[in-house]
Amino acid sequence: MKKNEIRKQMTTPLGAPAYPSGPFYFRNREYLNILYRTDMEALRRIVPEPLEIDEPLVKFEIMYMPDVTGLGAYTESGQVIPVSFNGEKGDYLHAMYVDNHPAIAGGREASAYPKKLGSPRLYIDSDTLVGTLDYGSLRVATATMGYKHQPLDLELARQELTKPTYMLKIVPDFDGSQQVCRLLRTQTKDLTIHGAWTAPARLQLFAHALAPMADLPVLEVISASHIVTDLTLSKPDVVYDYLKEQ
């Protein structure tokens, strides 16, 4: 393979890349979101500067994606923390657990989504929407919500899913030093909502050394949403470079 051909490649291995170039369009992407109150000191220990915390809140989310161009079908779960940056309110993506390798590789390499391997599920159990996350053979999270009890205002649902999103991109060099250390911002704008609902919800988190969701304990469930959408992921922009500051 010629040098100019190598420069055009998205990722390795050559000839069988880990993921396609995109764009990535999601059809019938289904969300279970639970917003809860947690411990402020626990948040301060993990939210990176220069992001600021306004309230001790966390959003636990599970997303089932049955039809994604280039990636197939997969499920994802994680924790999202409401923050502000330069006066703009948004969400910081703290951790994401995914059951699809192309989504993990592409999310981490081409963007900065904090993805690692896990086994999330989203399903209906009688009259209950259930979301679970296992790491290996152990349960990390169980979320339950009444199934489509009340319609959620579509504009509120849109606002929930189109907030600016912040994430860290960290790439090490061979000696362990940081080659890239940046704060990125992205925002979903191409979004179609097929339905949105709210209902009573509960969330249990279980301690795990390598999937430490329970480090942000559930003190009080504030609200829950169940949303079905079509959307296209937007490309992120660099808003802060930690190495240049240094």
Overview of the structural elements:
Its EC number is 4.1.1.4. It is an enzyme of class 4 (lyase). This is Acetoacetate decarboxylase. It catalyses: acetoacetate + H(+) = acetone + CO2. By secondary structure, the protein is mainly beta. It has one domain (20-241): Beta Barrel (Acetoacetate decarboxylase-like), CATH 2.40.400.10. 13% of the residues lie in helices and 52% in strands. It has helices spanning 3-6, 40-46, 101-109, 154-161, 242-245, and strands at residues 25-37, 57-68, 72-85, 88-98, 115-117, 119-125, 128-135, 138-146, 150-151, 165-172, 178-186, 191-198, 201-205, 220-232, 237-241. The protein is globular, with a radius of gyration of 18 Å. It starts with a helix and ends with a helix. The model has no long low-confidence stretch (mean pLDDT 95).
Strand content: over 45%
Overall mean pLDDT score? 95
List low-pLDDT spans. none
Quantity of strands, as a count? 15
What labels would you give this structure?
mainly beta, 246 residues, four-stranded antiparallel beta sheet, single chain, eleven-stranded mixed beta sheet
Chart the SSEs and their pairings.
Blueprint: H1 3-6, E1 25-37, H2 40-46, E2 57-68, E3 72-85, E4 88-98, H3 101-109, E5 115-117, E6 119-125, E7 128-135, E8 138-146, E9 150-151, H4 154-161, E10 165-172, E11 178-186, E12 191-198, E13 201-205, E14 220-232, E15 237-241, H5 242-245
Parallel strand pairs: 4-5, 4-10
Antiparallel strand pairs: 1-2, 1-14, 2-3, 3-4, 6-7, 7-8, 8-13, 9-12, 10-11, 11-15, 12-14
